[in-house]
Amino acid sequence: IPIAFISVILLPIVGNAAEHASAIVFGMKDKLDISLGVVIGSSTQIALFGISIKYHILFCVVAGWIMGRPMDLFQLFETATLLITVLVVTFMLQEGTSNYFKGLMLILCYLIVAASFYVRMDP
């Protein structure tokens, strides 16, 4: 299993199971703003933590820059995926309403991102 798949897909799901359960409860009570805040915030924190583990610690990246050996934290694929994901979620949330079709589209987008990270070879 590629390291990128573990750090971007599996780690956020397993590490945030309690937050996702509370987000579902808040969503069922029509408190969409709290639900989105919990899901997006906690998933972002865990994903960035996993990426920093991939490069051991963020200090190694800074030390590499000082020594003249750049160690980029994000490659082009991860940056493009993050940008596209932010745009898709922004367009979905602009109206302030939700329905099953929007949820289905977001789940399918997540599955596409998961599949792309699974088949992508780490550089």
Helix content: over 70%
Provide the residue-averaged pLDDT: 79
Taking all Cα atoms into account, the compactness measure Rg is: 16 Å
Q: Which structural class is indicated by helix and strand composition?
A: mainly alpha
Q: In total, how many domains does the architecture comprise?
A: 1
User: What's the N-to-C terminus distance?
Assistant: 14 Å
Q: Tally of extended strands?
A: 0
List low-confidence stretches.
Answer: none
* SS strand fraction: under 5%
Number of helices: 6
Sketch the topology as an H/E string, one letter per element: HHHHHH
Question: How is the main sheet built?
Answer: none
Shape: elongated
GO molecular function: calcium:proton antiporter activity
InterPro entries: CaH_exchang, NaCa_Exmemb, NCX_ion-bd_dom_sf
Subcellular location: Endomembrane system
Transmembrane segments: 47-66, 73-94, 100-119
Task: Write structural notes for this entry.
Residues 1-17 form the signal peptide. This is Na_Ca_ex domain-containing protein. The chain crosses the membrane at residues 47-66, 73-94, 100-119. It holds the Pfam family Na_Ca_ex. The protein has 123 residues and is an all-alpha fold. The chain has one domain (3-119). It is built from 6 helices and no strands. It has helices at residues 3-15, 17-28, 32-54, 58-66, 76-93, 100-119. Helix 5 packs antiparallel against helix 6. The radius of gyration is 16 Å and the shape is elongated.
Key words describing this protein structure:
single chain; 123 residues; mainly alpha; 6 helices; 77% helix; elongated
Short recap of the structure:
The chain has 6 helices and no strands. It has helices at residues 3-15, 17-28, 32-54, 58-66, 76-93, 100-119. One of its GO terms (biological process) is intracellular calcium ion homeostasis.
